[in-house]
Amino acid sequence: MKRYLHTPVLTEEVIAYLRCSEGGLFVDATVGEAGHTLEILQASPQTTVIGIDQDHEILGHARERLAEYADRVTLIHDDFVHLPLILRTMGIEGTDGLLFDLGVSQFHFMEQGRGFGFHHNEPLDMRMDTRGTLTAADIVNRFPLEELEHIVRRYGEERWAKRIVKVIGRERRQGKIKTTGELAEIVSRAIPKQHHPRRIHPATKTFMALRIAVNEELKKLEEVLREAPFLLKRGGRIGVIAFHSLEDRIVKQGFKGMERTCICPPTLPQCVCGGREQVLQVITKRPLTPRPEELRDNPRARSAKLRVAERL
Fold first, then answer.
1. Which residue of 25, 165, 193, 304 is 20 to 30 Å from 72, comparing CA positions?
2. pLDDT tens column, 225-267
């Protein structure tokens, strides 16, 4: 049996909270190597799934893994930000469940050539969709240093952003920074050794920030969350698994905004907007996190948070 690189997280919670055992039409908007989709399909023989991923290569792995369920699954090479258009083109007015797993697959870190991690010295790319034009090398070598510092500080939540970017600026004046190995060494050198983190590589936050910027991950998440609730049938549920505090904050605020019936500023003494129809009801007042047994088997799940809301 083929061994897949990525282990899906919070699968039991996804199946239970999206009520997959009841059957219906589900969308796995970040299908990856199809770990969640496989579980959803196995939960009920009355279930069909539309799986979307912007990475053509990983979609091929998903197709292999789901071959047994080919009559119940449709795989589409696209970006989840286009989900409303995708469903409209397919003639689908509503779904029973939407799942967004925002974590980066281990496939991307372990497979060579894409520049997501430090396991191999390879070109600074980091594009999920290789049809895109902006790469991590473009950001590192061409962006103004002020903008680069903003990216590293905001998206990576890196306290040493100013120092890191200062060293990057000095190095790129000597010649283009082309590989992951070069960048990882530069970042490691920029952070004082006594402040190197124990559990992760010193360049982890910088690499994460660049990946988020290259793929516009936060911008796309905000955009799709504004539209996603209206792609659900009444009673349908949306689940989002986030691994990054900025992502989780966007999901929390997005769900909360759709739950509100009044959109007046809180400073006003009374409602003047006339109210609006409540779109969602938040099911998970606090995010669901991995159980101890899951963390034992898959330590990479430790930062995962699942939030679920229901269409009213």
1. 304
2. 999 999 999 999 999 999 999 999 999 999 999 998 766 777 7
Interval 78-136: pLDDT, tens:
999 999 999 999 999 999 999 999 977 766 666 667 888 877 899 999 999 989 999 99
Q: CA of 34: how far to CAs of 6, 8, 95, 136, in Å? A: 9, 8, 19, 27
CATH of domain 11-107+218-311: 3.40.50.150
Extract the tokens encoding 188.
């490691």
Domain with CATH 3.40.50.150 in the chain: 11-107+218-311
Residue type (1 letter), 249? R
The CATH number for 119-216, chosen from 3.40.309.10, 1.10.150.170, 3.40.50.80, 3.30.1330.10, is: 1.10.150.170
Residue ranges of the chain assigned to CATH 1.10.150.170: 119-216
Two tokens, residue 28: 């796995």
The alpha helices in 6-53, defined as continuous H runs, are 11-17, 35-43
Q: Which two tokens stand for residue 23?
A: 């059957």
Tens digits of per-residue pLDDT, 32-74? 999 999 999 999 999 999 999 999 989 999 999 999 999 999 9
Q: What global pTM score does this model have? A: 0.90
Residues in the chain: 312
